[in-house]
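Reviewers of the previous submission asked for a worked example of the structure-prediction workflow described in the proposal, so we include one complete record here. The input consisted solely of the amino acid sequence. No template or homolog information was supplied to the procedure at any stage.
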Amino acid sequence: MEHDLEFNDFGTMVMGCGPYHIGSSVEFDWCAVSCIRALRGLNKKTVVVNHNPETVSTDFDECDRLYFEELSLERVLDIYQAEQCSGVIVSVGGQIPNNLALPLWKNGVKVLGTSPLMIDSAENRGIFSGICDSLGVSQPEWRSLSTLDDALDFAATVGYPCLLRPSYILSGSAMNVAYSPIELEKYLKEAAQISKEYPVVITKFYVGAREVEMDAVAKDGKVVAHAICEHVENAGVHSGDATLMLPTQTISLTALDTIRDITRKIGKRFEISGPFNMQFLVKDNDVKIIELNLRASRSCPFVSKTIGTDFIDTATKVMLNEKLPIADLPTLETPHNPQTYVGIKAPMFSWPRLLDADPLLKCEMASTGEVIVV
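From that input alone, the workflow returned the following structure tokens.
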């Protein structure tokens, strides 16, 4: 390969969200742009990799160097090596760059923020559930599947309905609630196709529970910023299709304290440095963890705008080991909940434009946009 460019800036690579699709849209582009602007504010050169002309992150004046290339291991390695990047940020572009964290690290890339080994442990449903058990963190009864007979035995033991959860997925792909052995067998085959290399976990599905989301930033395992949202819909609707409220409206103080305590434990155990998101089931004062994403979530822009703290700006400074104004941040001890208003994030759907669409909210995401009001 020949070129006439000089690569001596040692810029920081930011991986974008790739093509827009259900589950990955403008929310993650907002996160990438916020990260890029934070880096430039720190006088760091930026190298952006993203192949989507509709994003702000691919505007020519947002970064120092833009590569309009696919987000694959081979392409990212080529760019990283040519640019002699000082490091790569994988946690602001959604699931695609997050899935590349471990392969990049195995190829000698410096992944900034939370360790790729910890990311892999969080994404692998079986490993994550085992870690929660070791921490004494309550979760729905679960089992990592190996055979259909095991799944049927587990479901018969805990009772239907049961939820199938593949690993390393975005927008709840192939995640389904089975109400009978016939549905369980059907959904298991779908889940196995989506997540061939990783285990599928089956959990007890709780009816009538509320779902609560924690968006947070941690530095060396200590949580430095957080915000808690409540879903209007009961658990069972994908978080991307749910209506979010901040601050929470029906969750008890005891349950909120439990959520913060679990967040403290998880942050320390996974040695998190950067953004992360957790989802919980809440019924009265009973709190159970559903999942952990060691990356920015699609609700990051919402919570950042609602409470007036840019979580991605904070996370970027954490990943670059910059000093933080801790006194001004919404730590676990000092939440910044709005006092005179409530923030609402409502999903938008394209069902009227889609032939034979099924307008029923499920575990797999279907919304194609959102609107935020306060």
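Residues 23 and 171 are 5 Å apart (CA to CA). We consider this example representative of the routine output the project will generate in years two and three.
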